[in-house]
Amino acid sequence: MQIKEIGKLPSDHADNGFYGQDIISVSQFNRGNLDYIFGVAHEMRVLVERFGSADLLQGKILANLFYEPSTRTSSSFMAAMLRLGGQVIPINNVQYSSVTKGESLPDTVRTLESYADVIVLRHPEVGAATTAARYAKKPVINAGDGIGEHPTQALLDHFTILEELGKVDGLKVAMVGDLKYGRTVHSLTKLLVNYDVEFVFVSPDILRMPEDVLDVVRGSGRRFSVQEDAHGVIEDADVLYVTRVQKERFSDMAEYDRMKDQYVVDEELMARAKERMIVMHPLPRVNEISYAVDTDPRAAYFRQMRNGMYIRMALLAAVLGKA
């Protein structure tokens, strides 16, 4: 059994390269198909702003299978499908499903694809989406697998940078906070190495970016530095990408308490930032961005959140052959 790869499935819909394919990892994307999906996402944004919805996916069904709690990713996939005229089977709390009876992931996805045209999966185990895709004949979209990848978040983050700043090449991107467990920064970094970007990774040593991600940056030839002081990068950053310290990834709560407030973006810090830059966050936030920053026009995180719906509309339309 092989994972269905972008551009590898012969069909009369395959001209977009996405039809019938799984979206598992950012490694599936290059500048060409990124340009395509961002173009479709922009069209989806215009569609929603002008008309609210369309019937592009009428008759199609999405199975939303979430083994972990989620607000934004789950609801944005549901909203994306509904705005395109499709329907959703929501399984957002597996304790009420046959998983509690011991049903395996392969059997669960094979059950759901009997009813649905595409499956969105969030799972606490790294590699779960790959496993699901091996067994499913219908497209599987990875909505986050443990501390591994979160490709659709990386796509919406990248799309946000492009929409906000008009370009990606030549930017300095500072990632701040929990870089060890933050799957969003892992995926975004691997995506942005396709562009001429300089990275600054800011975290306590215990939460530094994993070496396998740094190896990807090294292999790309992109410049990067590893630091512990956010104050030293704010003046030059074009993008300040902030992540929360993820309590659910810690077994030692005392260690979590020591780490959780290491970095806080407040008005004092923002006073030193460029006039043209953006602050991003995958949300939810805890204490790492002051609410006073929300009114700053450079605070892009709620616009970033809405962009998630447009990206997911684009992906659903593309893998179902309707983009």
Could you please describe the fold and organization of this structure?
The protein has 323 residues and is an alpha/beta fold. It has 2 domains: 14-150 and 308-319, 3-Layer(aba) Sandwich (Rossmann fold); 151-305, Aspartate/ornithine carbamoyltransferase (Rossmann fold), CATH 3.40.50.1370. It has helices at 31-51, 72-83, 105-112, 128-135, 151-165, 183-192, 211-220, 253-259, 267-270, 301-319, and strands at residues 61-66, 87-91, 118-123, 140-145, 172-176, 198-202, 224-227, 239-242, 278-280. The strands form 2 sheets. Strands 7-6-5-8-9 form a 5-stranded parallel sheet, covered by helices on one side. A 4-stranded parallel sheet has the order 2-1-3-4, sandwiched between helices. The protein is globular, with a radius of gyration of 19 Å. The model is unreliable at 6-14 (pLDDT under 50).
Summarize the structure.
The protein is of the alpha/beta class and 323 residues long. It has helices at 31-51, 72-83, 105-112, 128-135, 151-165, 183-192, 211-220, 253-259, 267-270, 301-319; strands spanning 61-66, 87-91, 118-123, 140-145, 172-176, 198-202, 224-227, 239-242, 278-280. 35% of the residues lie in helices and 14% in strands.
